[in-house]
Amino acid sequence: MPKRKIIKISEEKCNGCGLCIPNCPEGAIQIIDGKARLISDLFCDGLGACLGHCPEGAITIVEREAKAYDERRVMDNIIKQGDNVIKAHLLHLKDHNEEKLLKEALEYLKEKGLKSPLVNENGPIVAPHQGCPGSKVMEFTRSKQKQQASHIQDVGSELSNWPIQLMLVPPFAPYLNNADILIAADCVPFAYASFHQELLKDKVLLVGCPKLDDLSVYSVKIRDMLKNNKVNSITYAHMEVPCCFGLVNIIKEAIKEVKSDTKFEEVVVGIKGNRLK
Questions:
Q1: Looking at residue 43, what DSSP letter applies?
Q2: What domains does the chain contain, in order, with CATH numbers?
Q3: Dihedral-angle region of residue 82 (phi above 0 means left; psi in -120 to 50 means alpha; beta otherwise)
Q4: In this structure, which of 13, 89, 106, 142 has its CB flanked by the most CB atoms within 10 Å?
């Protein structure tokens, strides 16, 4: 059986609130015995639309042996739920650039004699984004004043360690001991203009993607770092999109499990580059 990315639900963390269910149009999740459960590998595409809607951080994406996702089986389930669910699913695939799966879904509708909710007599409908907020395509116009600010003198880099990818940093790296660590979601340095001066200064930098990377590996890595070093503080800087919140609980749980007195701070950056928290 091949390995692929698929969601994992922590029974311990899940409180059965059900907020993940309407955000999984594929129908892969159900509440059973008071907990959210992945009912079939066949229905989970591993794209994580449900990820950022769990208030307890109980849902992560892992890579494991799993049956291949079956678009036709998913469509069998989805068409029973009506046009709105079909539309949400098609937009979900479109937003994640899953052209092959989208084509399969549209062919399935055609075979069943059903119209695509994304098309009317005038052609394709330009529908509002309904998929993962982190993959919504947007374009920002900057003011002339901000464009002119690019001529300001280079203030230099505050980077003090290498490597910076969380996956690559060994837990016994000497620069981790007695350190103030900044864990940054990898979009943050691009979005936040004052990243070096306001966030990175006097900190050790670790970078990763809480949506696309394996959070179970991160969990083990952060715990090992705390076990092997005296870490003064961890600041987690991430974007405002839901899929970026996945590391918050993992860092907190690691600090709690190791019984460390490491201080934790969370910084949230807006998609337009403004600091929210």
A1: G
A2: 3-133 (3.30.70.20), 144-269 (no CATH)
A3: left
A4: 89
Helix (H) or strand (E) holding 246: helix 246-258
Residues 201-223 pLDDT 10s = 999 999 999 888 888 888 899 99
Rounded (10°) CA dihedral 192, 216, 60, 184 = 0
Take residue 212 and report the two structure tokens written for it.
Answer: 């696309």
Tell me the pLDDT tens digit for each residue of 262-277. Answer: 999 999 999 889 998 6
* Start-to-end C-alpha separation, the chain: 44
Name which of 246, 152, 236 is nearest 188 in CA terms: 236
Q: Which two tokens stand for residue 239?
A: 């974007």
| Strands 119-120 and 59-65, bridge-based pairing | unpaired
Residues in the chain: 277
The whole-model pTM stands at: 0.57
Residue 239 contacts residue 269 (beta carbons within 8 Å)? yes
Count of other CB atoms within 10 angstroms of residue 80: 10
Name, in order, each residue with C-beta under 8 angstroms of 102's C-beta and a sequence gap of 6 or more: 90, 93, 94
